[in-house]
């Protein structure tokens, strides 16, 4: 086993010998040390070869005698060979190009002994010098160069570093990490790419140096404080394997652009850590980071945070942060939570972002989100509006607005009946309006001293009572608030609704009838709105005022609705006050009374029939009593009145316009549009006397052929007459004595 000659020690024990070696640029001086042991001489064959096995000329071969002392055996020739006699049991050493190596024990000289150099390739450019420890002066290093195993001091453009040469070839470079001012940075780690990324454990020293064993053409990546930079082979050569950081400066300013200090500055570069000591001084903090890296810087101030990302560019990169100021008016303490609970004080500065503020409470309290931008100087007022029922239960869905130069939306109450909101400006006396189910209420108060607006609805009971004062069903109640809102149908005579205090119109619909009460004041106390029906008695009497059965009564309320048939001349119905049309049908005749006012007290609606006398008179105007006629009228269909016994027949009819008909001796006359009104009306039918001057008429046709008697009375109309010895002829008969046919 070979050992490099250790030039940093003055003496080294070797078995029982003490050998001292001192090397200089001119060669190796052997120092003899006395010994009492003698040995027979043997022939030593010693080679010095390079890493390819080729001989190296000029290497100085030494041997250490068992008797003590080091002696020069010779210098290697062009084949790297030295031969000569040495005492048996001697050690061997070699000195070549400032390097030196010795054996760790006596050498077996029966075989040639070979010293081998390693090829050292330094990839750095510029004048490279090297020296060994303990020697003065520098020698030029020409890459690649064969060197004996050992430790060498290299100098590359003023940067000194140790290189330990082993038994294998070495290819590498001096990698430098310097800051933006050119000062070395300790602690940089590196990796290189050779088919895959390799991660050596060496780091840059206090001078910012590390010796990188890396193949030529590799890519190298430097990492420092979480930032990284990767250089290709060409860029490494251009920079002479130097990585230089950029100075990253983070500034923090307040809303007035004045320096602001915080002790919470961190950076994310392969993990969160303090940036540049973690705090600003005079509003500034700096750190050296490798360019081309993207970093994220976070600043926390007043527990509010902002993160910003930036790509680090050489020679310097600046990242500016600015807070925004908030002046918030509220009558109770305001808190917010980031990592712990904090209490807001007026004029605080916050990092840009949206912050949730809790009004007079913690996490379960009402909150508002306020977005603050860089440089903001926000002035806001916060308020809380609550909506509860008459039983103190929260009501969701209440819409809240507030007046600040105009009506502004605040929000909608949540399941807790509460809404929190902010308005721009520092408000003083402020009106807040609550709208619920169309009803509204406005409260005005001094917001800075009382920011809590409490609204409570009133339980409004709408009841329906009949004319006797008893609760009755089923009425449908509603109220007007911007539009008609349904309350519901009465049950047990009542229906309830929660309403904000105010003045409203209410309406009740019952059996199609409707009543509306306007400007009903609803106060803070429970309110009752009462609707009462009126007992409406519909009567039917005859022309003499006597009750008549059975007339059928109806009224109009959206449609015609039945009241019922008269009994003892009357039928009753409960109706809400108003103006309605009534109708009565009797014996097919019908009368309608329009716009009948129904008041709050019992109302009678009376229909009275007219006594209609239907009479049958002859051509002289005398009642025909010997042969009665049959009278009828039309009311939906033809209805029989009766025979005119004694010349007349009567009927009670409701006023109106009707058609009447009389049938007599098979002839028929119809009178249309006869107006029936007043107490008694007479409808008269008159026959005409028919005379055949020749006396030859013997028949007339009225549904069938009937016998004609000269001078007989017939109702007006057109008839066909039959004559003896003459053709049939048609004649139009008129009432009265002159109707001659021939």
Describe the SSE topology.
Elements: E1 2-4, E2 12-14, E3 17-19, E4 21-24, E5 27-30, E6 41-49, E7 60-64, E8 70-75, E9 81-87, E10 91-96, E11 99-103, E12 113-116, E13 118-122, E14 128-132, E15 139-140, E16 145-147, E17 150-156, E18 159-165, E19 170-178, E20 189-194, E21 196-198, E22 209-213, E23 219-224, E24 227-231, H1 233-238, E25 242-244, E26 246-253, E27 265-268, E28 272-274, E29 284-289, E30 294-301, E31 304-311, E32 316-322, E33 324-329, E34 334-337, E35 341-343, E36 348-350, E37 353-359, E38 367-372, E39 377-388, E40 399-403, E41 407-412, E42 418-424, E43 429-436, E44 439-446, E45 452-456, E46 458-465, E47 476-480, E48 484-489, E49 494-499, E50 502-510, E51 513-522, E52 527-532, E53 534-541, E54 552-556, E55 560-565, E56 570-575, E57 578-586, E58 589-598, E59 603-608, E60 610-617, E61 630-634, E62 638-643, E63 648-653, E64 656-664, E65 667-676, E66 680-686, E67 688-691, E68 697-701, E69 705-707, E70 713-714, E71 717-723, E72 726-733, E73 736-740
Parallel strand pairs: 6-12, 13-19, 19-25, 26-32, 33-39, 39-45, 46-52, 53-59, 60-66, 67-73
Antiparallel strand pairs: 1-11, 2-3, 4-5, 6-9, 7-8, 7-10, 10-11, 13-16, 14-15, 14-17, 17-18, 19-22, 20-21, 20-23, 23-24, 26-29, 27-28, 27-30, 30-31, 33-36, 34-35, 34-37, 37-38, 39-42, 40-41, 40-43, 43-44, 46-49, 47-48, 47-50, 50-51, 53-56, 54-55, 54-57, 57-58, 60-63, 61-62, 61-64, 64-65, 67-70, ...
